[in-house]
C-alpha cells in the first residue's frame, strides 16, 4: 500500500470520490429495494421504476433535452457510442470524424469500414487541438450519414465548436454525433441548443455517477432510423418477439443497472445544487500557468487563456510518460494517467505517439487547492532529477 495520502488527478478516466449522496443512494437501493425496474407492480418494483425515470428526467434536464424518453441508459460512454454508430450506419454510408477521437469512436468506425463497406474521412486539427468546422463541411459527401466528433478531447481538453459544426452539417443534410465523455456534467452542455442529433456520454466521469452508467440521446425524429443492435426483454410488449421500436426501451434490452442509476440520479441532483463555481477551471489554469514554468516540461493543447476541459497533458524531459506516472505515484501518491489515452490519432497529430504519449492530470470536483499545490511541487522536484 502506498504510504502517501492519495491525490487523485485522474478524473478524466472516472471521477473519484463521488458525492456522499451517491454512495447513500446506492446503499439504500441495494439494501431496501433490490427489485428490477419496469417489470412488476409490487411496491419495491415500482420504486425501482420510479428511480430510473427520475434519473432519466434529471439527466435530460441537466443536458437541455426536452423529452427524457429520448435518453437511453447504457453501460458506459463506449456502449452508447457503439449503439449509435452500429445502429445508424448502413453499407455504403460515409462518416466524417476527426483525429481527436477516442478509440470508443475510432474502433466502431474501423469495424464498420472493415466489415460493412462504410468509408470514413478523418479531419485533422491545429497544433492546439482545434478542428476547423469548414474542414468538416468540406469533408461531407452526398452519402455522409453523420459527423462524429468529441466535444472535448481527453488529451488536449480542446473544446470543439459544436454549434458551428452542427449548423454546417445540417445545411448538408448530415447528422451530428457528439461524444461528450469529457464535458457532460463539467461544462454547460445544452444538447438541443447546440443542434446535436445524437449524444453519447458515460455517467461516471463529470456526471459523478458510478462506473457502469452511460447515456445515449437520440433526437426524436431519428429514433425510427436507428436499428437496435441488441435485442431482448424490456418489460414491455412481452407478447411480441420483435424488439420494440420506441425509445428508450428500444435500446435498453435486459435489466438496467438500477443501483448505479440510483447513484447517478443522486449525483445529478448534487450537480444541480452546486453553486456555479469555476474552482475546477481555476485549478486547471493554475496547473497550466505553473507547470509552464518548469524547465523541460511542455504542455499540449489550447492556449492557457482559452476554456478547456479539465485536462492538462504534458511531456517532461528525461522521463518516459508511463515511468513518470509510476514514479510520482510511488514518491508522492499522485495518481494520473500516462500514455496514449486511447486516442492514438490525437497523439500522432501532436507528434507524441512515438515518445510514449503524454502525462495527463485531470482535477475533479473534489480536488483541493492543496492537491494542486502538491502536484506542482512534486512535478518540479522530479523534473529537477530526470530518470533517463
Ligand atoms: C473522449 C472520450 N470518449 C469516450 C470515452 C469512453 O467512455 P467510457 O469509459 O464511459 O466508456 C472516454 C473515456 O475515457 C473519453 O475520454
Report on this structure.
The chain is α/β, with parallel strands linked by helices and 388 residues long. The chain folds into 2 domains: 20-273, 3-Layer(aba) Sandwich (Aspartate Aminotransferase, domain 2), CATH 3.40.640.10; 277-383, Aspartate Aminotransferase, domain 1, CATH 3.90.1150. The protein contains 11 helices and 13 strands. The chain has helices at residues 20-33, 43-62, 77-88, 103-115, 133-139, 162-171, 258-273, 279-292, 321-332, 344-350, 369-383; strands spanning 7-8, 71-74, 94-98, 119-123, 144-150, 175-179, 198-202, 214-218, 297-300, 312-316, 334-335, 337-339, 358-361. The strands form 3 sheets. Strands 2-8-7-6-5-3-4 form a 7-stranded mixed sheet, sandwiched between helices. The chain has a 4-stranded antiparallel sheet with strand order 9-10-13-12, with helices on one face. The radius of gyration is 21 Å and the shape is globular. Bound molecules: pyridoxal-5'-phosphate.
Class based on secondary structure composition and strand pairing: alpha/beta
Radius of gyration: 21 Å
CATH topology of the largest domain: Aspartate Aminotransferase, domain 2
Mean pLDDT score: 96
CATH class of the largest domain: Alpha Beta
**How is the main sheet built?**
7 strands, mixed
Ligands bound, unique: pyridoxal-5'-phosphate
- Percentage of residues assigned to helices: 25-40%
Strand order of the largest sheet: 2-8-7-6-5-3-4
The low-pLDDT segments are none
Overall number of structural domains: 2
CATH architecture of the largest domain: 3-Layer(aba) Sandwich
Q: What's the helix-strand series?
A: EHHEHEHEHEHEEEHHEEHEEHEH
Please identify which CATH superfamily of the largest domain we are dealing with: Type I PLP-dependent aspartate aminotransferase-like (Major domain)
Beta strands, count: 13
Amino acid at each position: 500500500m502506498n504510504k502517501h495520502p492519495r491525490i487523485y488527478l485522474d478524473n478524466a478516466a472516472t471521477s473519484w470520490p463521488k458525492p456522499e449522496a451517491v454512495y447513500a443512494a446506492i446503499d439504500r437501493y441495494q439494501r431496501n429495494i433490490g427489485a428490477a425496474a419496469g417489470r412488476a407492480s409490487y411496491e419495491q418494483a415500482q420504486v425501482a421504476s420510479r428511480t430510473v425515470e427520475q434519473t432519466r428526467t434529471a439527466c435530460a434536464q441537466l443536458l437541455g433535452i426536452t423529452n427524457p424518453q429520448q435518453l437511453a441508459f447504457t453501460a458506459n460512454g463506449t456502449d452508447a457510442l457503439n449503439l449509435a454508430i452500429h445502429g445508424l450506419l448502413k453499407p455504403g454510408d460515409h462518416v466524417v470524424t476527426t483525429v481527436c477521437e477516442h478509440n470508443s469512436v475510432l474502433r466502431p468506425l474501423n469495424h464498420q469500414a472493415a466489415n460493412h463497406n462504410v468509408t470514413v474521412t478523418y479531419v485533422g486539427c491545429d497544433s492546439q487541438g482545434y478542428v476547423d468546422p469548414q474542414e468538416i463541411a468540406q469533408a461531407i459527401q452526398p452519402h455522409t450519414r453523420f459527423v462524429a466528433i468529441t466535444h472535448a478531447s481527453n488529451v488536449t481538453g480542446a473544446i470543439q465548436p459544436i454549434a458551428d459544426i452542427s449548423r454546417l452539417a445540417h445545411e448538408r443534410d448530415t447528422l451530428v454525433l457528439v461524444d461528450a465523455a469529457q464535458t457532460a456534467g463539467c461544462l454547460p452542455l445544452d444538447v438541443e441548443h447546440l443542434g446535436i442529433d445524437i449524444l453519447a456520454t458515460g455517467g461516471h466521469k463529470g456526471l459523478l455517477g458510478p462506473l457502469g452508467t452511460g447515456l445515449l440521446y437520440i433526437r426524436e425524429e431519428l429514433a425510427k432510423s436507428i436499428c437496435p443492435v441488441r435485442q431482448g426483454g424490456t418489460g414491455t410488449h412481452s407478447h411480441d418477439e420483435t424488439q420494440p421500436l420506441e425509445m428508450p426501451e428500444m435500446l435498453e434490452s435486459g435489466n438496467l443497472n438500477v443501483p448505479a442509476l440510483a447513484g447517478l440520479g443522486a449525483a445529478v441532483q448534487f450537480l444541480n445544487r452546486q453553486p456555479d463555481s469555476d474552482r475546477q477551471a481555476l485549478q486547471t489554469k493554475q496547473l497550466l500557468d505553473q507547470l509552464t514554468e518548469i524547465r523541460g516540461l511542455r504542455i499540449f493543447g489550447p492556449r492557457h487563456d482559452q476554456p478547456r476541459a479539465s485536462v492538462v497533458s504534458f511531456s517532461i524531459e528525461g522521463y518516459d510518460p508511463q515511468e513518470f506516472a509510476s514514479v510520482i505515484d510511488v514518491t508522492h501518491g499522485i495518481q494520473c494517467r500516462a500514455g496514449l489515452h486511447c486516442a492514438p490519432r490525437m497523439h500522432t497529430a501532436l507528434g507524441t505517439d512515438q515518445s510514449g504519449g503524454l502525462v495527463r492530470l485531470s482535477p475533479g470536483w473534489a480536488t483541493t487547492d492543496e492537491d494542486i499545490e502538491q502536484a506542482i511541487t512534486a512535478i518540479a522536484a522530479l523534473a529537477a532529477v530526470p530518470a533517463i
